[in-house]
Amino acid sequence: MSFCTAITCMDGRVQLPVNRYLCKRFGVDYVDTVTEPGPCAILADNSDVILVKSILRRAGISVERHGSRGIAVVGHFDCAGNPAGMERQKEQIMQCLELLKRHFRNVELVGLYVDEHWNVHEV
After folding, report:
1. Whole-model pTM?
2. Which of 11, 49, 62, 74 has the most CB atoms around it within 10 Å of its CB?
3. Domains of the chain by range and CATH?
């Protein structure tokens, strides 16, 4: 069994396209999913220390216990938890990746954005 990790919105519309994409992208069988409403905004802002630590702890379990091959941070169109537009979310995703680099040095990191047609794009 092989795993990767998605830090993604709780919005159910993004789950299947992201999981399909990540299984191919990382060549894995399963995707461990860490969900929050608008995780890109949460991690980019980095002000809610408890919530940020919770996300990092859950992603860490995936890396340490499941040997996750990669971590993706996902933003998406029409996000209720982060109503920012696509360009702002892409900026936030890049900020998230910088934060994650400090915590997960030996894991490949990728930023994803899911558009209005539910297509997944690397940022």
Report:
1. 0.96
2. 74
3. 3-122 (3.40.1050.10)
